[in-house]
Amino acid sequence: MPRRAAIAHQPKPEDAELFRHRAELARLRTTLAAREADLDHLRAQLNSFEGRYIRQVGVLYIQLDEWEDRITELNNPTQPQPEILEPEPELGPQPKTEPDTTAVDLKSLFREVAKRIHPDRARSVHDELHRNHLMSQANAAFLRSDTDLLQRMLNGYDPSTDSGDDQPVADQLARLTERIAQTHEDIATLNAEIEALAASEMADLRDRTKIAAQQGRDLLAELAARVKGSIGIAMRRYELELGRIRRKQPAFNPEPLLTAERAPTTAPRAVPSNTRHKN
After folding, report:
1. Contact between residue 213 and residue 49 where contact means Cβ atoms under 8 Å apart
2. Contact by Cβ (8 Å): 160, 133
3. Which residue in 7, 103, 209, 278 could disulfide with 219, CB within 3.0 to 4.6 Å?
4. Closest by Cα among 130, 13, 132 to 21
């Protein structure tokens, strides 16, 4: 029996273009996931080091600031000023307007969608980026008063997962092109965040602490010792300033007591309960 010739399927040019766009998007998403992992790892490292810094040095800086504030209060005593309230202008009767129920429903619907998809509720960098995309789509739907899309999003519909395979090829290409551009922006955003964290003061201190450890030194312990010395100096300054202020008090005047002894005997005045002797 003669063998049938295999029929070779020749892809259309537009199908080949779709394939290239999908491959490019897949490659970019792999890069995006890798950069997200890099950012999460860097954040975890810096958060761990920052906690160590706060325990060893940060708490000492708080004590130093407290002593500096005490010195400032001694030299610049201030009393809290009462808040002056401006009288509210009297408004005349306002014309009653009927609320636009369509606008109210659209705003309420958008508010509920925003609560559910808000980036502040993200659990990871990838989730935050995804929620940002959803917020952009919800904002666009609100601006064009698309209550149908907002309601579908509230019911769980995710426009970004719509493959659009049933759409014309031109629409699919346009959608893929938009996603590719958005993914490029996301990668650039992550790269900028990573660079900013790597150049931060905490990252620089972490790196210098590592170098010091290789030299057999504990940089955080050295910083803590310096701050403790500054605290001691601030405490001494406070004592000196307090003594100087006390020495400037007027000399004791016994005349009021002598006048009180010559006056008729009366019941002593009560001492206010909130009187406090300052040392």
Report:
1. no
2. yes
3. 209
4. 13
Share of the chain above pLDDT 70, in %: 70
Res 20 pLDDT > 50: yes
Instruction: Please check the confidence at residue 198 and state whether its pLDDT lies above 80.
Output: yes
Q: Which amino acid, 216? A: G
How close are the terminal C-alpha atoms of the chain, in Å?
116
The answer to whether the beta carbons of residues 205 and 53 sit under 8 Å apart is yes
Of residues 21, 19, 42, the one with CA closest to residue 203? 42
Amino acid present at 199: A
Q: Which residue has the tokens 């699919």?
A: 172
Label residue 267 by pLDDT band (50, 70, 90). Answer: very low
- Single pTM value for the model: 0.54
Cα-based distances in Å from 213 to 48, 163, 206: 17, 53, 11
Per DSSP, the residues of 88-157 read: PPPP-PPPP----HHHHHHHHHHHHHHHHH-GGG-SSHHHHHHHHHHHHHHHHHHHTT-HHHHHHHHTT-
- Compute CA 52 distance to the chain's CA centroid, rounded to the nearest angstrom: 21
* Location of structure tokens 């504990």: 218
Please state the length of the chain.
279
Q: DSSP code of 8?
A: -
90-94, 164-168, 218-222, 246-250: least confidently modelled range:
90-94
Closest alpha carbon to 48 in 189, 219, 199, 205: 205
Ranking 53-62, 109-118, 164-173 by mean pLDDT, the lowest is 164-173
Q: Taking a C-beta distance cutoff of 8 angstroms, is the pair 235, 64 a contact?
A: no
Burial of 117 (0-12, 13-18, 19+ CB in 10 A): buried
**Residue 240, both tokens:** 């000196």
